[in-house]
Write the structure tokens for this entry.
Amino acid sequence: MKKILLSLALLLTSSSILLADGGMWLPILVGDHIKDMQANGFKLTAEDVYSINKACMKDAVLQFGGGCTGEIVSNKGLLLTNHHCGRGQIQSHSTLEHDYLTDGFWAKSLNEELPCKGLTIQILERMEEINLQKFDVTNKEGEKACIEDAKKRFGEKLEYEIENFYAGNVYYLFVYKVFSDVRLVGAPPSSIGNFGGDTDNWMWPRHGGDFSMFRIYADKNNEPADYSPENVPYQPKQHFKISLKGVQEGDFTMVFGYPGNTELYLSSYGVDARQNVLFPSRIFVRQNIMDLMEEAIDADRTVRLKYTSRYAGVENAKKKWEGVILGLKRFDVINQKRNFEKDFSKQISNDADYSTLLKQYNESYKNSINVLRADAYFVESIYQTMQFKTGEKLYKLATISENLTPTELQKEAYSIYNDVKSIVSSRDKALERRLFTRLLQIYSDSCAAFMPDTFATIYKNNGIKNASDYVNYYYNNSVLADTVKLKSFIDKYLANIGNSQSKWEKNVKTMKNTLLKDPGIIYYYRFITMYFDKIMPQLRNFYNQNDNLDKEYQSAMIKYMPEKIQFPDANFTLRFTYGKVKGYEPNDGVIFKPYTTLEGVIEKDNPDIYDYHVPEKLKELYRTKNYGKYADKSDGKIHVCFTGSNHTTGGNSGSPVVNANGELIGINFDRCWQGTMSDINYNPEICRNISVDIRYVVFLIDKLGNAQNIIKELDLVR
Ligand code: ARG
Ligand code: GLU
């Protein structure tokens, strides 16, 4: 394999930067873009965005909870992110008496802020390109040496991460401060934070107030520290000013955050596999799950409580993939890619290192598509069944029994029992049985060649003809069929083993063998073994081969068609992207404005539709036009959300959206459905990010939450 050593900085300054159609740029290279940004209205300098010599915008942007972005908005560590990013924390502080998720929450003083166990915040200190000749970080030793070297230069207390870019052609070192004392400060009721719910998710026009507030705490020296009542609010190097000026169509916007994952340089074969096989498979399974869940949720309030967030998770990716397929078809991306590949093939035809690349992609996908498809089905169906998870727990009991002392075994056995109980109690029994039946049926119909071998025998020996028979057999025979049965089984299991040293070994073996015959364990064990035997090895081969091809393909693009690969795929490292406030035309004859207002929230209000319940207090603010200084100057309305042409993806949720002066004008929280293909193919005509207007956020804090303590703390500018 060809090894190329490229300096990204060199590469990008040597080729001219084209006006960006999308782009998730590395902050350290902001200097290469600043002219274009300024030409589009930006008023700050490169050093104002990213610098290691002075306080700058990057010091106010953070990774929130390992999956979202947030921004600091006061000199006391106050931060904003999305409601859907803070939801887990808000929920964990909610009880029947204090249902903060439903009713909202506002701490009226520092004392009332709620510590969030397990929540961490990362702030980037610096990044630097790794010289691969000095540190070959493609292997473990090189990585270690590189980090040791960095620790000597920057200190032991920081967090160090090495990430690869351009499919492994370039590497960067990232240095973070990681804060673990983070406290919940406030959130609107979920009827506002999650207004529109799954109905409006990925859609425009949008009317959600998707925000929540937290605060970072530090020790007396302003350094990260574990939770302690002694800790004090963190004093950041920089925080965002909040603009109440509002936005107009055409205004410059920039989004600064942590986009998770894109696949912009896929081959036509890769797009084809996703568009025609992998996404449709996943969508099909998820649709089945959603149908069953919906039925149960509609029929029973307790089922709704248990399944709301699980349903949202299933729906979120499914709807996105549908949007991706729609976009890929509409813009005929496969053929676009094929045409590109024709040109590209001509360019590289004389370069022996690259000339067979596309043929190899083709073959690799052709050879592996069945296993990729089986993997998709497995992960979406069998793996998702509750019975798979409980089977895994019980299987653990069998595998550990022999290596423990009687007391240890007792402790472990009951802890496994408790694990199973907590899985089961968070779910609905009848619904899980229906899901099990449906998912097993789907998997066995769709992936007959990837069924565990023993299943044919089990079916034959027990007169089982289909999934429904199998599920009956499971429920009649497994101790996992209900927790009472499981408890008495575990009591008996331990009693039969006893603790007499002389018989221990023999007894453990006997009991273990009975345990392994339980259909609950067999279901888990046979499927996971099948996965490891029949799917994993081929899958690993495919990914190894594909990763190598990607690396070569991208290095060839860099060499021969650099204008086609100006920035690396997203990899959950800090990026900035810029564009304009902009509407779009989703379909022929339809024009979408770039903003929505409170009138739209009121229009959607509907007591019969769960996602569209508008809280009484918000309706009252609307009726009395009690808008304070937050109404738009031109139309007197409260603006709620706006769209822009910024290239974002999952992980950008909660990202600051700033104006030409670098002031906060919104919080990014979604993309428009017709343009979700931007993860694979960015099209400036149709790809739009969605932000909540910061004026709506401050309006809600002030007028709905009446949190004057927070209003005072914010740096509001007009
Ligand atoms: N689509 C947004 C994202 O990908 C929001 C998801 C949360 N909201 C929801 N209704 N599921 O994360
Ligand atoms: N809601 C997404 C997130 O949680 C952002 C939407 C997108 O995928 O662009 O990051």
